[in-house]
Amino acid sequence: MRKILLLLVLISKSIAAHAQSDTLSITLENVKYPYPVNFMPIKAEGQDIRMAYMDAKPATPNGKTIVLFHGKNFGGYYWKDVIKLLTDKGYRVIVPDQIGFGKSSKAFIHYSFHQLARFNKNLLDSLGIQKITLMGHSMGGMLATRFTLMYPNTVEKLLLEDPIGLEDYRTFVPYANAEDDYKAELKTSYESVKKYYQASYFTTWKPEYDYLVNIGAGVSKSADFPRYAKVAALTFEMIYEQPVCYGFGLIKVPAVLFIGKEDKTIVGKALLSDEEKAKHGQYKILGPETAKKIPGCKLIEFDNCGHIPHIEAKEAFFKALTANL
């Protein structure tokens, strides 16, 4: 019995070590997504690039489409259970990997929420989709806000899950240019990613969250990682320099804001003193304040939950989402 237990421990350690040492391509070719991935070609700034997306169709369609925008440190892969929930209810679900993220091209272009929104509109046009419910998480919430402001006739309802950008980071986070951010990104490791995810995204870490770290850190061992790091720096610059919080009052579609009350996400947090960290990124305060800015916005809060309710508080989030589609 003792030998068996020892063997199991050794196997467990071997699996953990292997998970930490896996090298992923910067376009995640070796990461299996939950649904088939398609690609839309784009011509941008003289470059031929492509945008990856999943188009999950229900067995019994209700005629409606929901689009899911991922956060900065993620791709469409982490929407797996949300997609299944929605397709089971008859929705067609479109899940893009934004340019610069996931399986999409890591292009050296000027990153802006306006341009990313246009890419997504082109995707919907190519699929013949005219009306959508739009849900954005984290950075995807900033993009969903910009998309809604640009294309109000396309979005029938806006769902925001712990969006970043609820405050203007320029007003309290010290400026760092893309080169500074690039140097910081080059230091990425499995340990640094896991530490950040543990401290920033979840109230209590569970082994089932490790796959997020494996993907987030796996690209750092690719020979092409410098390109990935440069793009990550450019998108950090986009978030810092292009706030959307001043446009909340202009949203004219029904909106629902889902907030994990223990979320304390701040873009550029490492550049702040402990005193400044305590003043900002308090979603239990920012949530209600933001809901008041968006006309007619409904606020739904989750206790003991951090930055990703659709993973950490899945049952409660799914119930709330279902009730507010």
- Give the end-to-end Cα distance, rounded to a whole number of Å: 53 Å
What's the total helix number? 12
The dominant shape is globular
Radius of gyration: 19 Å
Class inferred from helices and paired strands: alpha/beta
* Fraction of helical residues: 40-55%
Mean pLDDT, to the nearest integer, reads 93
Lateral strand order in the biggest sheet = 1-2-4-3-5-6-7-8
Strand elements, count: 8
Tell me about the biggest sheet?
8 strands, mixed
Beta-strand percentage?
Answer: 15-25%
Topology as H/E string?
Answer: HEEEHEHEHEHHHHEHHEHH
Q: List the uncertain runs.
A: 2-19
Characterize the structure shown.
Strands 1-2-4-3-5-6-7-8 form an eight-stranded mixed beta sheet, with helices on both faces. The protein is built from twelve helices and eight strands. The relative contact order is 0.13. The protein is an alpha/beta fold. The radius of gyration is 19 Å and the shape is globular. α3 (113-126) packs across α4, α5 (178-185) packs across α8 and α6 packs across α7. Helices cover 40% and strands 16% of the residues.
